[in-house]
Design a protein that fits this description.
Helix content is 64%, strand content 0%. Helix 4 packs across helix 6, helix 4 packs parallel to helix 7 and helix 5 packs antiparallel against helix 9. The chain has nine helices and no strands.
């Protein structure tokens, strides 16, 4: 289930409708503030009837969530180079490159605007899938005998700065991610061992 609605089978008309609607949402976000977005606007741009959009997604919030899930679950997998540092460099460069695509910060900004005070927020399925992939990468490094960060440390020290910059200033160029990776590895090197 996704947003309380049964997932459609991939391919065919359903996939074409989803693709057209997603593309319309992204195009419109480049032209309008999120608060001006509406199902009729998306229907007009996509050529998909309003009733179909309402039936499949229900609200603009649910549609935005589906666009975000699609974008982030189809992103490339995590590298497996045989070296944690090289894996981290490649992964962080991938994230930085994705954030240089103007559509991604637009999706993120709209997602932030959907947050309501006091509302209990669920972890996005896209984020959960990415956390799992990162844990696999870290487990591989640990199996090789390398010292590894936790997924939380990786997200806080590598990924969060990239998203912060993409949302509020300019994205970090992919060629400049090495300092973030080295900062994380430096934290690991100077970590005080906990009691056994």
């Amino acid at each position: 289930m996704r947003n309380g609605r049964a997932m459609q089978r991939p391919g065919g008309r359903s996939a074409r409708v989803r693709s057209a609607v997603h593309e319309a949402v992204i195009d419109l976000m480049e032209e309008h503030p999120w608060e001006e977005m509406s199902v009729p606007l998306v229907a007009e741009r996509s050529g998909v009837h309003q009733a179909t959009i309402y039936r499949r997604w229900g609200t603009m919030s649910a549609l935005l969530n589906d666009v975000m899930i699609e974008r982030f679950t189809t992103a490339g997998g995590v590298p497996d180079t045989g070296s944690l540092r090289e894996d981290l460099l490649r992964y962080t460069a991938q994230v930085a490159e994705s954030l240089e695509d103007g559509a991604v910060p637009l999706i993120l900004r709209a997602t932030v605007m959907e947050i309501r005070p006091g509302e209990v927020r669920q972890t996005s399925p896209a984020f959960q899938a990415r956390e799992h992939q990162l844990q696999v990468m870290l487990d591989r490094a640990a199996d090789r005998g390398e010292q590894v960060p936790t997924v939380e440390e990786l997200l806080e020290l590598l990924v969060a700065p990239l998203y912060f910059r993409a949302l509020f200033t300019q994205p970090v160029p992919a060629k400049h991610v090495e300092r973030l990776v080295d900062r994380l590895l430096d934290v690991l090197e100077h970590r005080v061992p906990g009691p056994d």
